[in-house]
Amino acid sequence: MQKLGDFKLPHFFNYPPYFTLQPVRETREKQVQLWKDLILDYCRTQKIFIIGLEEEFPLFSNPVIERTLSHEAREAFFSALVSEGRAEWLDKGHRKCLILWHRIQDWAGIILNFVKDNGFEDSVMTVEEIRSGIESRGTELHGIDRTILMRALKILEQKGKLAIFKGTSADDEGVKFSV
Amino acid sequence: MRRRPGIGGLQTAAAARDQYRLLGENVAKLRTDLMKEQLATFRSQLEEFARKHKTGVQIVEICLSTRPLNGGLIDLQELCKLLRQKRKHDREAVSEDDCLRAISKLKTLGSGFEVISAGKKKLVRSVPTELKKDHNEILELAQAQGYVTVDEVERRLSWTHGRAIDALDTLLDEGLAMIDDGHSDGKRRYWFPCVSSISSFGADS
């Protein structure tokens, strides 16, 4: 099985036709599904949150079989992820895509667990501490994309689980938990 | 039962009603019992069938699960390999002959399963699509490299361009072929999953 670093690539990645967007609907549906799963899997294991469709991304080419995904194919796969709520376009030109290998609601749940696991139910922390503090190490929150983190925090704020406020320095926002 | 006037008559009528009711209940119970027994018999027959035709059932499962990837046509050797993987806890090894026997049993059940020959390979078909001779010839040609180009089909089979395109388009529509426009020579290739051993896509083995 071919690997990309630690990551085991699925068999279809070595079959040339999968790099061409298929015209027959049933075949294309299967193709899109396989690519969607691959993109989400890869991003989750490599902790990748943003992908630029026009940039070099390891999944876009397979040098072993000398094939590269056309822009049309890339657009199709990412649009499918967006339709399913597993990604969002960051620009109107569809050049950059935010990957939600966890949905925002799931991230909110992960934050709540993090709070309970560390006894932070009444604590105050900066947003940066949540994503890079000592307690975050070894958890999925470590290194989380700030945009995603803020969105998840806002959901929790609406549910009354916390309050977001501006910090004393111009730098960072803070969070007061009331879980 | 003769009707009798007076209280005696009413009591008789009541007794008669009771008897009819009991009879009715018994009949209903008999019906339910009979149905339960029939279901139990059917179920054990089904289980017996599944036991006897375990291999056949597993073959059907494999064909159904790989159908989205190969259009309903799978290489016999590939099928056997997947079957062995499925049964790895089973002491009984499965040979190609075992597979063929199980498939011919499936065929007699009218399930649409068929083994077809294309060149050196045997392919198991699990969809009702009839493969015409033209399609068969292309499948044979594709076995060399796993794909064909339109030029190749025209040249090697001495067909007109129209005939080649028609056949290839049909195979594409049936899900038996996939296009590949990524080669640097710019020529479109038609790949045939059923002649390559890649039916294990999607379910990583």
From TrEMBL, chain A:
<protein>
    <recommendedName>
        <fullName>ESCRT-II complex subunit VPS25</fullName>
    </recommendedName>
</protein>
<dbReference type="GO" id="GO:0043328">
    <property type="term" value="P:protein transport to vacuole involved in ubiquitin-dependent protein catabolic process via the multivesicular body sorting pathway"/>
</dbReference>
<dbReference type="GO" id="GO:0005198">
    <property type="term" value="F:structural molecule activity"/>
</dbReference>
<dbReference type="GO" id="GO:0003677">
    <property type="term" value="F:DNA binding"/>
</dbReference>
<dbReference type="InterPro" id="IPR014041">
    <property type="entry name" value="ESCRT-II_cplx_Vps25-sub_N"/>
</dbReference>
<dbReference type="InterPro" id="IPR036388">
    <property type="entry name" value="WH-like_DNA-bd_sf"/>
</dbReference>
<dbReference type="GO" id="GO:0016236">
    <property type="term" value="P:macroautophagy"/>
</dbReference>
<keyword id="KW-0813">Transport</keyword>
<dbReference type="GO" id="GO:0042803">
    <property type="term" value="F:protein homodimerization activity"/>
</dbReference>
<keyword id="KW-0653">Protein transport</keyword>
<comment type="similarity">
    <text>Belongs to the VPS25 family.</text>
</comment>
<keyword id="KW-0238">DNA-binding</keyword>
<dbReference type="Pfam" id="PF05871">
    <property type="entry name" value="ESCRT-II"/>
</dbReference>
<dbReference type="GO" id="GO:0000814">
    <property type="term" value="C:ESCRT II complex"/>
</dbReference>
<dbReference type="InterPro" id="IPR036390">
    <property type="entry name" value="WH_DNA-bd_sf"/>
</dbReference>
<dbReference type="InterPro" id="IPR008570">
    <property type="entry name" value="ESCRT-II_cplx_Vps25-sub"/>
</dbReference>
UniProtKB/TrEMBL annotation, chain B:
<dbReference type="GO" id="GO:0000814">
    <property type="term" value="C:ESCRT II complex"/>
</dbReference>
<protein>
    <submittedName>
        <fullName>Vacuolar protein sorting-associated protein 22 homolog 1 isoform X2</fullName>
    </submittedName>
</protein>
<comment type="similarity">
    <text>Belongs to the SNF8 family.</text>
</comment>
<dbReference type="InterPro" id="IPR036388">
    <property type="entry name" value="WH-like_DNA-bd_sf"/>
</dbReference>
<dbReference type="InterPro" id="IPR040608">
    <property type="entry name" value="Snf8/Vps36"/>
</dbReference>
<dbReference type="InterPro" id="IPR016689">
    <property type="entry name" value="ESCRT-2_cplx_Snf8"/>
</dbReference>
<dbReference type="GO" id="GO:0071985">
    <property type="term" value="P:multivesicular body sorting pathway"/>
</dbReference>
<dbReference type="InterPro" id="IPR036390">
    <property type="entry name" value="WH_DNA-bd_sf"/>
</dbReference>
<dbReference type="Pfam" id="PF04157">
    <property type="entry name" value="EAP30"/>
</dbReference>
